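User: hey, got a sec? need 4-hydroxyphenylpyruvate dioxygenase folded
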Amino acid sequence: MADLFDNPMGLCGFEFVEFAAPTPGVLEPLFEKLGFTRIARHRSKDVDLWRQGDINFIVNREPRSLAYYFAQEHGPSACGLAFRVRDAHKAYYRALELGAQPIDIPAGPMELRLPAIKGIGGAPLYLIDRYEDGKSIYDIDFEFLPGYEDPARRHPVGHGFKLIDHLTHNVYRGRMAYWAQWYQRLFNFREIRYFDIQGEYTGLKSRAMTAPDGLIRIPLNEEGGSGGQIEEFLLQFNGEGIQHIALRTDDLLASVDALQMAGVPLMSAPNDIYYAMLEERLPGHGEPVAELQARGILLDGSTAGGEKRLLLQIFSQPLLGPVFFEFIQRKNDEGFGEGNFKALFESLERDQIRRGTLKVAAAQPQPA
Ligand SMILES: [Fe+2]
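Assistant: Yep! Here you go:
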């Protein structure tokens, strides 16, 4: 993909997301259900590579590692993130010059020292230039498991998810500008969209940051009211961090069927009025409404001027503490489902009310 604008760090997509959990046996069964396969094991550390398509999830169980302490503090979570860059050394020193804080990740003898800076919530943000099959960090530091020695077999299809579409950070109120500027200063991200979503009782503000490669997208969320879902996340997660990770497929209907077969709990479908109104909202969209409704898939985008730009999406229930996943298919739409945002927001709010974490009686005066 050609760069959208000046790309001083040579960014080229997400390389991996690293996960940790304070107790064993939490991440592995979940990743299996999500369609991932464990294909390689680190040569010296208690670290595994799980893959689906071109998506790499790292499970780090190494005692007294950064990941270990992160999980002690935050519970099961995404404790690290990696960007692909053209030249990791150059990108690292440029980041330090621009004020990034280095993070030292100890490496064994003959192992790669992965350059990392301190990112969201103190989690390491790695800069990786070895990502080509055969020359990747995994080819050097990992051993492929039996059955995956052949590079042609190293990208299991799983449920059909091919890449990380975006991942969202939840930040404390007043901190969205800090993180937007951080990604802009170091990596030349741009704000592509800004939403200020007011539910009936609470709200959230969101800035969708996109990298110059057009592949790394990081929306930033901040609480817009009081006692809302972002505040609840920050309390439960014990700090700022990755709220959800969106995985992209070319066939969401089939991928959702596979997720359901595997027993991944998904958000319940919106009511039938949502589906009845789709034709009005997106005239001539041509998507099979009954099929979407049967699975609870949401549709967004635009069909203005006869030009179809559509996005299909569905969210999981919280699966790692408050952290959840999104499953998405893009048909020429580059948004994040903002048309669905309000509907989703209100459905989460209704869920908060049902669970009793949001008291609404005083907040809902009857109109005179
Ligand atoms: Fe999302």
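Quick note: The chain is about 25% helix and 30% strand. Let me know if you need anything else on 4-hydroxyphenylpyruvate dioxygenase.
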